[in-house]
UniProtKB/TrEMBL annotation, chain A:
This is Cytoplasmic tRNA 2-thiolation protein 1. It comes from the Eukaryota. It comes from Penicillium chermesinum. ATP binds at G57, A58, S59, D63, I89, G167, D172. It is an enzyme of class 2 (transferase). Its main location: cytoplasm.
TrEMBL record, chain B:
Gene3D superfamilies: 3.10.20.30. This is Ubiquitin-related modifier 1. It comes from Penicillium chermesinum. There is a cross-link at G105 (Glycyl lysine isopeptide (Gly-Lys) (interchain with K-? in acceptor proteins)). It comes from the Eukaryota. The lineage of its organism: Eukaryota, Fungi, Dikarya, Ascomycota, Pezizomycotina. Belongs to the URM1 family. Keywords: Cytoplasm, Isopeptide bond, tRNA processing, Ubl conjugation pathway. C-terminal thiocarboxylation occurs in 2 steps, it is first acyl-adenylated (-COAMP) via the hesA/moeB/thiF part of UBA4, then thiocarboxylated (-COSH) via the rhodanese domain of UBA4. One of its GO terms (biological process) is tRNA wobble uridine modification.
């Protein structure tokens, strides 16, 4: 096959086909276009102000490494005037985080940025290894997720920084849209799609400058700039539900590459249907409702009819959504059923300070404190748990022994 | 004409785990596949699974006789779609890179 020429510079050999528009471009044009598009995302969303101190949530993985490299480049090219630093969270998982933290340390030198590493151990008194020893491999992701969300904010607060950027890309956002669509969790879908998560009660702003960047292009950017990043899979259980959503997204991309940005766009449009978080009367009912929201949404699945009805009612009362509400008409009987359950309101978040740690939370006691409370109360059980694991191991061994006897006879 | 093609195969982005944690492999690929046709990427995939991949999790790399969605293939640094994907016929000295986008940080 004769080499294809870049459609942009019409000189160099094309090495990349862009997923979003199938354009064939060369290495140099790709790097420049990728950076320019992130710049456009940043400027059109007014993400930064001159002189702002920004912490990059850095894991040593491809996304955050590319984010750090691109932000450094753009900061210099367009004189953003940003004071950038790297913020890493050490979950305390031996054999998983150790190596990626080494990568972050190298990145700090390569990009000349100060680095702060904050551990679960020092923040919560529990490393993930200890949490898993206590509760087992099942369900530990909940702990890790809740702890991590707070850890980045606490790290930023410690550094006196009010803005944390993360490496979430278009594929991640599309996954989140799909997951929340499947759970029927429109409010969370809305929060997941917005480029900036800024809550009234918290003074730490979160944003995702790579929100419109394809994972494929992030990997290619890292490859063509030969960035130093680390790949690993958590040694404890992978997030099964997200995994399925991820496979679905990748399959769709294979058939129709623009799908990913289209899902992100759909997510944004659906988010526009969700009433604003601080729209007076809805905020009141938020705390009680959020409690039942739970982690993986099994409860949502069961009551989806009622929830949709409640949502329908909510949307009808919302002026913004008024023009579009006909699109999600439900049978007339549904709202009555919901009425019986005491008209559950849509889940919005009202933030307050956790009574225990003072950290912002949608509940009186924040999730991290609730989880910690459970862990601390059961701490002595650790040894018993280990004992049980041993027993399990030996029963497996016994079963294997039985097999051997069977085959021998 | 020689009966084998020397090429370099690289696995990154987490795929190296499936190939003895080695990123770069220099291999000599038979010049012709079993049916006598010049060796192409489709044959290389089969060859890699049969000869180089010690890990049992074949579906982490190959699905339905093709590269698993989410794994990028670069032929001499170019997206394989520009080179004819699995029908590309390998040349001596080629560098083939498999990059996974599926793994986390």
């Amino acid at each position: 096959m004769a080499p294809t020429t870049c459609v942009n510079c019409k000189e160099a050999r094309a090495v990349i086909i862009r997923p979003k528009n199938r354009q064939k471009i060369c290495r140099a044009c790709f790097l420049h276009i990728f950076e320019t598009e992130v710049h456009e995302t940043i400027t059109s969303a007014n993400l930064f102000f001159p002189g702002e101190r920004v912490a990059i949530g850095a894991s040593g993985g491809k996304d955050s490494t590319v984010l750090a490299a691109v932000l450094k480049t753009l900061n210099e090219r367009y004189n953003y005037g940003l004071d950038l630093c790297l913020l890493s969270i050490d979950e305390g998982i031996r054999g998983y985080r150790d190596d990626s933290l080494e990568t972050v340390k190298r990145n700090a030198v390569q990009y000349e940025m100060p680095l702060e590493i904050l551990g679960y151990g020092e923040l919560y008194g529990w490393t993930m290894d200890q949490v898993v020893a206590q509760i087992g491999k099942k369900g530990n992701c909940t702990y890790c997720g809740v702890f991590r969300r707070q850890a980045l904010d606490r790290g930023a607060a410690k550094l006196g920084i009010k803005h944390v950027v993360t490496g979430h890309n278009a594929d991640d956002v599309a996954e989140t849209v799909m997951m929340n669509l499947l759970r029927g969790d429109l409010p969370r879908l809305s929060r997941g799609t917005s480029i900036v998560t800024d809550s009234g009660a918290s003074d730490i702003k979160r944003s995702k400058p790579l929100k419109y960047a394809y994972e494929k292009e992030i990997v290619l950017y890292a490859h063509h700039r030969q960035l130093d990043y680390f790949t690993t899979e958590c040694i404890y259980s992978p997030e099964a539900f997200r995994g399925s959503a991820r496979t679905l997204i990748k399959d769709l991309e294979k058939i129709r590459p623009s799908s990913i940005l289209d899902i992100v766009k759909s997510g944004e449009d659906m988010a526009a249907l969700v009433p604003n978080q601080d729209s007076g009367k809805n905020g009141q009912a938020a705390t009680a409702e959020d409690e039942s929201a739970g982690g993986c949404g099994s409860a949502n699945g069961r009551s989806s009819g009622g929830e949709m009805a409640a949502m329908e009612e909510q949307l009808a009362s919302n002026e913004d959504a008024g023009s579009r509400e006909t699109e999600i008409k439900l049978p007339k009987t549904a709202p009555k059923k919901a009425g019986k359950a005491g008209k559950p309101a849509i889940k919005t978040q009202t933030l307050q300070h956790c009574e225990k740690c003072g950290y912002m939370s949608s509940q009186a006691i924040c999730k991290a404190c609730m989880l910690l409370d459970g862990l601390n109360r059961n701490r002595p059980k650790t040894e018993i748990n280990i004992g049980m694991e041993d027993e399990e191991g030996s029963s497996t061994l016994m079963r294997q022994m039985e097999k051997i006897q069977l085959t021998n006879s | 004409m020689s009966d084998s093609i020397p090429i370099t195969v690289e696995f990154t982005g987490g795929l190296e785990i499936l190939f003895a944690n080695e990123r770069q492999h220099k291999i000599s690929l038979p010049a012709r596949s079993g049916d006598g046709n010049p060796s192409n990427i489709a044959y290389l995939l089969q060859y890699l699974v049969d000869n180089l991949m010690k890990d049992q999790r074949k579906d982490m790399f190959i699905m339905e006789d093709n590269v698993r969605p989410g794994i990028l293939v670069l032929i001499n640094d170019a997206d394989w779609e520009l080179e004819g994907e699995e029908n590309y016929e390998l040349q001596p000295g080629d560098n083939i890179v498999f990059v996974s986008t599926l793994h986390g940080g």
